[in-house]
Amino acid sequence: MTTRPHFADIARELTEAIASGRYPVGSVLPTELELRDHYRTSRHTVRAALHELQQLGLVSRRKNAGTRVESARPRNEFRPTLASVDDLAQFGSEHLRLVQSAEVIVADRELAKTLQCAEGARFLRISSLRIDGGNARAPVGWTDVYIAPDYAEVADIAREQPDTLISALIEERYGHSIAEIQQGIQAVLVSDEMAKRLRVEPGTPALEIVRRYLDSAGKSFETSVSIHPAERFSVAMRLKRSNS
C-alpha cells in the first residue's frame, strides 16, 4: 500500500521547485486538483501544503486566480492571516497534530461556560500537541477538541491523518460542512500542568483561542480550545469596510 505524502513533504518539494526557478516569480502553480492527482493525496493535504507556502511568503492565493509565486526566498515568521471561513478552516493544518488522548468527559460549570453548553453535557475530548517541523522542536501549542461522543471513530482517523483538521474529518465522515466559525482570543498565563506539555515555565504568557464550528443550520458540531505560548504564535486578521 502506497503511503500518502505528508503536506510538509509536498510543501518542501514545491519550495525547492520555486527556488530552482522551475516556478519563477510571477508564474502560477498547478491547481489544487492537479497537485492532488500528481501527489496521489487528498485535497486537504494539498491545501495545507499551499497554505504553508503562503505563510512563508512564497505564494499568494486568490479565489479564481490560482496560486501565484511571489518570492523565491521564504520568510521565517509564522503569521497567519485570516479573512474567511476557508482561511480559518485551513488554519493550523500546516502543523502536525500529535494526539495525546481521546476520552469521553462530562462538562463541569467552568467548561460548560467555555463551550456554551449545559453543565453535565458529555463530549469526546481529543487532546493534541501541535508540532511545527517534528518532535524535536518545542510544541507550537496544545489543543483540546470537543465533539459529540457519537463521533468516536474520528479520534482514530485523527491519529492516522495528523495533517487534516478534525473539522474536515467530521465533514468527510458525517457531512457536517462548516458554514460559520466563531472565534474568541484572550491572553492567559500557562498553568503548571500545561507548562510541562508545552515546555515552558509556569505563568508564561499565552494566547487561548476558542473556536466553535457551526453547520448551515447554525448547530455547533465542534469546539476547540487551543493554548499557544506567546513567543511561538501570532494571529493577523484583515478587516474590510462593508459596502452595504
From TrEMBL:
Top-level taxon of the source organism: Bacteria
Keywords per UniProt: DNA-binding, Transcription, Transcription regulation
Record GO terms (molecular function): DNA binding; DNA-binding transcription factor activity
GO biological process: negative regulation of DNA-templated transcription
KW DNA repair (keyword) present: no
Domain HTH gntR-type: 4-72
Protein name: Transcriptional regulator, GntR family
Highest classification ranks of the organism: Bacteria, Pseudomonadati, Pseudomonadota, Betaproteobacteria, Burkholderiales
